[in-house]
Amino acid sequence: MEKRINIAELEPAAYRALIGLENYLATTTINKTLKELIKIRASQINGCAFCINMHTVDARKQGETEKRIYLLNAWKEVEGLYTAEERAVLALTEEMTLIANGGVSAATYQNAKSFFDDNLLAQIMVAIITINGWNRMCIATLVQPA
Q: Which of 12, 16, 33, 124 has the most CB atoms around its CB within 10 Å?
């Protein structure tokens, strides 16, 4: 695999800005399970091997089950494994990650809004935005799983 630039080394201020978003997310009220589901699902959609590896390891450390991790990319097909709130966040994650496919539908937005107050919904959206930024950086620069 070809060697590509290392953004953290070449543009540390830009890298620190992404770290700043992570530091912000650590202060939010999003529960840890939702954070990891967001990170894994967006990374699956984007095909970011580095992030999928990292966040499945992190999710396991927090007590996430193998079954839920393995079935995450088929969450719509599985009944009873993910809560209604998790399903709302997963739908939002998918539509925000695939934003060019028509944006976020009113139905998806309203469903998420039915479970979360405006501040928590904003925090969730920032979490989705952040992992998509990391995915794009890692994929474009060919960062490999540890």
A: 124
The first and second tokens of residue 32, run together, are 């840890």
Q: What separation in angstroms does the CA of 25 have from each of 20, 75, 77, 120, 142?
A: 9, 24, 29, 11, 25
Domain span including residue 30: 7-73+82-140
Residue 131 lies in a domain: yes
pLDDT per residue over 73-120, tens digit each?
999 999 999 999 999 999 999 999 999 999 999 999 999 999 999 999
Could you tell me if residue 111 is inside a domain?
yes
Task: Determine the Cα–Cα distance for residues 59 and 35; give it in Å rounded to an integer.
Answer: 9
Is this model's pTM higher than 0.85 or not? yes
Give the CATH number, domain containing residue 98: 1.20.1290.10
Q: How far is Cα 95 from Cα 102, in angstroms, rounded to an integer?
A: 8
Copy the structure tokens of residue 27: 């202060």
**Could you give the residue ranges of the DSSP H alpha helices within 1-146?**
7-10, 12-26, 32-46, 49-61, 66-70, 84-97, 106-115, 118-140
Q: Using one digit for the tens of pLDDT, what is the confidence trace for 38-73?
A: 999 999 999 999 999 999 999 999 999 999 999 999
